[in-house]
Amino acid sequence: MKITVTGAAGGIGLATVHLALEHGHKVVAVDVPSADFSSLKIENVEIIHADLSCLEDRDKVVEASNDIEGLVNCAGAMIMKPLFEFTIDEIHKLFEINFDSTWDLTSRIGRNMPEGGSIVNLSSTGSKYVSNSQVGPYAATKAAINSLTRTFAFEFAQKNVRVNAIAPGIIDTPMQEKVLKELSTRDGRNISELEKSRLNAIPMRRSGQPKECAELILFLIESKSSYITGQTINIDGGWVTH
């Protein structure tokens, strides 16, 4: 199986690439021009540098994905600041990166996938539950991804191409490290104390690992999940239960 993974140079995207290779798949790995792909310069990986907020760069990804059976839309960005300080331009930029690119790649790649193909989009528990208004526009982009996931699942169902999303909670990634640092600075709290209080809100009392998300993504990409489509599945230690 050949799979395209965006946001492939770090975090959940990188873990997904490594696990896909362990499963014997070939991968088209996509990330921004400045991304460090040194750990992926190996057999069965085609590397593409692309800014997915740019239509011309998305064209490159579509062209490289004309024979794939799986698409994982992991690429995303977050801006964190007091809610009323967001500008419309910042909100538009978040939607360009998080939503527009996911819609465009799902639409153009998905319509040409063979029967049995599968797409997994990256959402967030923030799309379902508000614990921090400083990421409100980011959460809005993820709520929009939940909706587009259902829409394309409906559209592609008759050709047996499935579309699902995962909604991670607190996962040990560079993005979560950034969130902790910014919350600590804004709230004047010690990072370790802040992290402890956040984890106490999770029934399992721990953060998740990128590989745990990758395991769920690969399950949804592969045929074992052949009757699952249109779903946004939480992976958050029990933090959100709807």
Description of the molecule:
The structure is a single chain. The chain is α/β, with parallel strands linked by helices and 242 residues long. The chain contains seven helices and seven strands; from the N terminus they run E-H-E-E-H-E-H-E-H-E-H-H-H-E. It has helices spanning 11-22, 55-64, 88-110, 136-156, 174-187, 191-200, 210-221; strands at 2-6, 26-31, 45-49, 70-73, 118-122, 162-168, 232-235. A seven-stranded parallel beta sheet has the order 3-2-1-4-5-6-7, sandwiched between helices. Helix 1 (11-22) crosses helix 7. The longest helix has 23 residues, at 88-110. It is globular. The model has no long low-confidence stretch (mean pLDDT 93).
**Which stretches are poorly predicted, pLDDT < 50 over at least 5 residues?**
none
Q: In which order are the strands of the major sheet placed?
A: 3-2-1-4-5-6-7
Structural class: alpha/beta
Q: What is the H/E string?
A: EHEEHEHEHEHHHE
Q: What is the number of beta strands?
A: 7
Largest sheet: 7 strands, parallel
Mean pLDDT: 93
How does the overall form come out from the CA principal axes?
globular
Determine the strand fraction and express it as a percent band: 5-15%
State the helix count.
Answer: 7
Helix residue percentage: 40-55%
What is the first-to-last residue Cα distance? 32 Å
Gyration radius, to the nearest Å? Answer: 17 Å
Put the structure in a nutshell:
The protein has helices at 11-22, 55-64, 88-110, 136-156, 174-187, 191-200, 210-221, and strands at 2-6, 26-31, 45-49, 70-73, 118-122, 162-168, 232-235.
